[in-house]
Amino acid sequence: MDRVVSQLLTEIDSNLSQVFVVVALCPFHYTGADFYALCSMALSLAIKDRVAAIQLYIDTANQDDVYSARPLHVATVLDMMSPDELQVQVTHGHFASALPHVVPSVSASELAHYDKLRVQFSSLAPTQ
């Protein structure tokens, strides 16, 4: 599973060493759903940051151009932006900010119980 998460995070942010830092900070008993929640929250934070940056650009442009009869609007700015400028990049900081808010869906004791059941009912169980 670490390989899958690593691949997904690498596609989001190309700084691979930072990906391993994020994964190392995650509780051992994170499930796939927990990693999904972490990625989703990190993406949400990245989108909010991108929206704030665009809004700051618009506000600054409108303040600097006091002589214009038509203030700059979001739709106008978005239409002028290239696909690269519209990209939202999820960074290590977004993951680090999201991590404290994601509660593992399986507790450590539940994981130990499931592992015990797995051993008991699998071919790994000691034979008598």
Write the layout of secondary structure elements.
Elements: H1 2-12, H2 16-25, H3 32-64, H4 74-80, H5 83-86, H6 92-98, H7 108-121
Helix pairs in contact: 1-2, 3-6
Question: What do these coordinates show?
Answer:
With 128 residues, this protein is mainly α. The protein has one domain. It has seven helices and no strands. The chain is rod-shaped. The two termini are 33 Å apart. The mean pLDDT is 82.
Could you write a compact summary of the structure shown?
With 128 residues, this protein is an all-alpha fold. It has one domain (2-121).
Shape, please?
A: rod-shaped
The whole-number mean of residue pLDDT values reads 82
Beta strands, count: 0
Oligomeric status: single chain
Number of helices: 7
The residue ranges in which pLDDT falls below 50 over 5 or more consecutive positions are: none
Give the distance, in angstroms, between the N- and C-terminal Cα atoms: 33 Å
Helix residue percentage: 55-70%
* Structure class: mainly alpha
- Element pattern in H and E: HHHHHHH
Strand content: under 5%
Can you give keywords for this protein?
AAA_ATPase_domain; 128 residues; ATP hydrolysis activity; mainly alpha; 7 helices
